[in-house]
Design a protein that fits this description.
Distance between the termini: 97 Å
Radius of gyration: 27 Å
Largest sheet: 6 strands, antiparallel
Strand order of the largest sheet: 3-2-5-6-7-9
Shape: globular
Oligomer: single chain
Order of helices and strands: HHEEEEEEEEEE
């Protein structure tokens, strides 16, 4: 008797064993759900639970929930220590349609913050508005971040995203004393600060 092309008896046995294990695991989950009041999974049939477990077992790539990446800013003082801004901070940018988009709205006692970074233009322009809480005066600074955009792919199952390499940063000096690049690479790692920003202090 001819065997079908590609037939492998040992592989078939292993597949049946795997299916049996999955069915047993699904049965345990189903029983546990029945013993837990208010659990939404109790209404799911064992066959559907088996399908869920099989699908989860076949996927090893976890796609990021958000494809956007952010730049991290740390306030510093002249002594090289973390600084706290006494003024109220508002940051906004101009959208492609010409309207303003507020990114940070009237933050107080700011020590750090994060800002999104675009993938459709070579530079991002931000407007930093600081309002003196003592004298009620307002100062406006412009910050320009230039960067290179690099497409990034986790998997064919995930949406494409962009990583970036910061090439330069410049600013006006009304309330801001200076900004320096601390880390050029912008990706999903939020533990590293990309910019160290120094604000002027009241006399």
């Amino acid at each position: 008797m001819l065997k079908p092309f590609g037939f492998n008896k040992s592989a078939l046995v292993m597949t049946r064993k795997k299916d049996k294990v999955l069915r047993q695991l699904a049965k345990k989950v189903h029983i546990a759900a029945l013993q837990t009041k208010g659990l939404s999974m109790l209404a799911l049939p064992i066959g559907f639970l088996t399908l869920l477990l099989t699908t989860a077992a076949c996927t090893s790539i976890d796609c990021p929930l958000n494809s956007l990446v952010y730049t991290q800013y740390q306030l510093m003082n002249a002594a090289g220590k973390v600084d706290t801004l006494a003024d109220t901070l508002t940051i906004y940018t101009n959208r492609v349609d010409g309207n303003d988009s507020v990114l940070i709205n009237r933050n107080v006692k700011t020590t750090e913050f994060s800002l999104p970074i675009s993938y459709a233009q070579k530079q991002d322009i931000f407007f930093f508005e600081t309002k003196d809480t003592l004298y009620k005066t307002t100062k406006l600074d412009t910050v320009i971040v230039e960067k290179e955009d690099m497409p990034h792919f986790e998997s064919v199952d995930c949406s494409p995203s962009f990583f970036h390499k910061i090439t330069s940063v410049s600013c006006t000096h009304n309330a801001i004393d200076s900004i320096v690049i601390n880390n050029h690479d912008v990706n999903y790692d939020t533990s590293k600060k990309h910019f160290l920003i120094y604000f002027k202090h009241r006399d």
